[in-house]
Amino acid sequence: MPRNTAVSYDSAIMHSQLSLEAKSLKTEVEALKEKENKLLGFHDIIGNSSKMLDIFQMIKDVARHDTSVLIQGESGTGKELIARAIHRQSTRKSKHFVEVNCAAIPGTLLESELFGYEAGAFTDARKRKIGLIEYANGGTFLLDEIGEMNPSIQAKFLRLLEDNHIRRLGGTENIPFDVRFIFSTNKDLSRMVSEGTFREDLFYRISVVPIIIPPLRDRIEDIMSLAYHYIGEFNTKLNKNVKGFTTDAEKILKRYRWPGNVRELKNIIERIMILQSVGTLIASDNIPAEIRVAAPHTQAMHTVKLSYPDSLYPADYRSTIDELTNRIKQKILGKALEANRGNKAAAARQLGISRYTLIRELRKLKNNNLSDDAI
């Protein structure tokens, strides 16, 4: 075999081997990355449920584009984490990530924060100030609680999105910008549009890609992953050595409805590890009383005897249904109030309803000759 041919053959073999090794290495890296996501979370977001895995994939898909994203979910579900994950997955990750909470800044001040102002634009405006949108140029901008934005600013913001430039307060210069906008809210913007409290044109402009984060009660399989994650976090912060939970404690956590979502779970774990004399395992007795008693009573309706004397047969359908419904409500509300020593706010949180709803139901029962004393 000629020398050149032998060299070419050897090179081809070596190239083939390197190619196989590269593919194998890539597979190993992807496997390690997947394992890391399970242990540490996807960009700090813990969740292995199918609903969260779908959201992770959506983040990857949408991050490659500059399309506006509307993140919706109850308070405490982690909307900001989703926004930051989109930023970190995007080509803008080396630029600024700026967050503004529309509910925390009064309307007039929010406008100057977003757009900036020129010297002399108003009293105390002694020098030019760059707005946050201008500061975020090239990066990502999160407008949290967009539903709280003042209607007059909604109109100006819509114009900004359409024109791709801003004008500082008191200025005449149109300043172009390159920003990827993400919006989040715990409100029902569709309902606000129908009520006339949120602009319809702005709603369609910001909700090109909606991401709806499920509440924690709808992804029970993620509860313990989150709980163990927070144990690790507070072990380090509080110099503890907690390893996990007893079986009974895990059952309690899984049955609770978590109206405050992930934020509430984190606060509960922190409270347990600070205030309770916890050994290596968190037991059911270490869990706060309002959490312990909540789950069993969510099933109270199944323990109520749904029967009536035969002498009443044939019964009026509607009145009988109303009577049985009131019995169920009486049992559930009564147990919740008893467990929380009459504290209506705590009982409402335990049942996953608002205090107003609980009081309204109590009044209905009272009007049906079931007094507060009976409850």
Q: Determine the fraction of residues in helical runs and give it as a percent range.
A: 40-55%
What's the level 1 CATH class of the largest domain? Alpha Beta
Name the structural class.
alpha/beta
**What oligomeric assembly is this protein in?**
single chain
What is the terminal separation in angstroms?
99 Å
Q: Strand order across the biggest sheet?
A: 2-5-8-1-9
Q: How would you characterize the largest beta sheet?
A: 5 strands, parallel
Provide the succession of SSEs.
HHEHEHEEHEHEEEHHEHEHHEHHHHH
- CATH topology of the largest domain: the name is Rossmann fold
Query: How would you name the CATH homologous superfamily of the largest domain?
Result: P-loop containing nucleotide triphosphate hydrolases
The overall pLDDT, averaged over residues, is: 83
The CATH level-2 architecture of the largest domain is identified as: 3-Layer(aba) Sandwich
Broad shape: globular
Rg for CA atoms: 28 Å
Q: Count every beta strand, where a strand is a DSSP E run of 2 or more residues.
A: 11
Number of helices: 16
Low-confidence stretches: 32-40, 297-304
Summed up, the domain count is: 3
Binned strand content: 5-15%
